[in-house]
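WARN no homologs supplied; continuing
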Amino acid sequence: MKPRLYIFAKAPAMGKAKTRLAADIGKVHAHRLYRTMLSKVINNVQDPRWDTVIMATPVRAIGTVPEWQGLPQYPQAKGSLSPRLAAAFRGVGPVIVIGTDCPQVTRSDIADGFKSLKKHPAVFGPADDGGFWLMGMRAPVKAEVFDNVRWSHEDTLRDVQANIDGTVHHLRTLIDVDDLKALRALRSLSPRQL
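OK structure emitted
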């Protein structure tokens, strides 16, 4: 069985994605940037060495988003991020989950993540805000790994790691583009990204 890369993606509906960024720069500009980030991430990470799957929300968007075409699309589990991640890691084999907030992610990052899972039970790509842009584990994983995690918090990564037995490997730190401050930070490092 091939390793699986799940991309947790929200349909690019005006005003429904990147709401914190939209509060800073407006809905139209945030919508445009989200579509760009969505396309970049999907294009940057596909590779024949692993299966790439869109884990979509909302369910009604499946099959309708141009950026998702050509990839298998399944609905995310219901509830907060904890049950959604638990469902992604319920299967068997090496699994990596990413979102669409880090347009700097590359195919090499994903390959490094899967390579790390040969030696470590878990791998994370830390985000500059205390969270993570990539989580990988050898599935199946107990749902308790996602208990007592403060999501969207400066200690999110620390909370998840505290629930994991064994060594954890870290990839490079990337910028999670959720607001204007993060967008400016990304553009100062990589003006061509967005």
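Strands lie at 4-10, 51-57, 73-75, 93-98, 122-126, 132-139, 168-170.
OK
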